[in-house]
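Tip: read the tokens left to right.
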């Protein structure tokens, strides 16, 4: 009975995200006024900032889940940290791609070693390293090492956020909380809609990634159990394929019921 409920949640998130995406695109390109200085290119701002905030949220979840894993040694926390790190790195990559597209017309360069850009690059490299560490390490020891690294990597997030206040650079400050020269009401509402859209997208991807990691963990557990009983290799491969097929059949049945 649990599988259809998960599929239903996934479907609801999919519809909400799709609807919000359409609304966000309308608000970004039609509703929000054009910025006086930067012009049309400023509209990248809504996607750029929203992606950055969701990346921060994902990395915060990595830190919390990593602490919980170190305290409890429960694999579900490790899976949550791993899945959130993957999606957070994806959003951070989008930040790194939209940034130069915005910077080139404004600063006349694709990249400069501005403090905000540099700390963001370091953040991306650290979580890319986390994914490599988690991917190529096995067992509980590898999960522990990844958890410690995930906690340490989050320390760069405050540096990224407060860098425009602590050091001078080309990157603009916090426009949302600025008292003077902040965003117009239409721009602010557009930004919040984009943020909500990206949040729903993050939750949708996280829900699916957690389901996949749970399936992988179950298959790996059965595989190891069979291997410990010295099962013949040919039968082991056939049995593993059978398990994967059974998961697929159950998944399809759940979708039809929902």
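Filled-in amino acids:
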């Amino acid at each position: 009975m649990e599988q259809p409920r998960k599929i239903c949640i996934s479907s609801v998130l999919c519809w909400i995200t799709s609807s919000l995406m359409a609304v966000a695109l309308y608000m970004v390109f039609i509703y929000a006024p054009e910025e006086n200085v930067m012009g049309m290119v400023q509209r990248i701002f809504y996607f750029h900032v929203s992606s950055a905030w969701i990346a921060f949220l994902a990395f915060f979840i990595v830190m919390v889940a990593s602490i919980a894993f170190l305290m409890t040694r429960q694999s579900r926390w490790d899976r949550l940290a791993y899945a959130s790190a993957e999606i957070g790195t994806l959003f951070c990559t989008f930040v790194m791609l939209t940034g130069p597209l915005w910077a080139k017309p404004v600063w006349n360069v694709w990249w400069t070693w501005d403090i905000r850009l540099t700390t963001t690059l370091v953040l991306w490299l650290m979580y890319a390293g986390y994914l490599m560490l988690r991917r190529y390490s096995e067992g509980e020891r590898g999960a522990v090492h990844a958890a410690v690294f995930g906690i340490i990597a989050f320390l760069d997030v405050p540096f990224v956020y407060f860098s425009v206040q602590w050091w001078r650079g080309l990157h603009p400050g916090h426009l949302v909380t600025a008292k003077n020269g902040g965003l117009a009401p239409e721009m602010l509402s557009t930004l919040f809609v984009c943020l909500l859209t990206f949040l729903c997208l993050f939750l949708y991807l996280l829900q699916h990634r957690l389901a996949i990691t749970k399936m992988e963990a179950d298959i790996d557990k059965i595989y190891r159990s069979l291997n410990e009983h010295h099962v013949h290799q040919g039968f082991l491969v056939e049995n593993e394929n059978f398990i994967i097929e059974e998961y697929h059949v159950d998944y399809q049945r759940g979708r039809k019921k929902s």
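The chain has eight helices and no strands. The CA atoms of residues 201 and 254 lie 22 Å apart.
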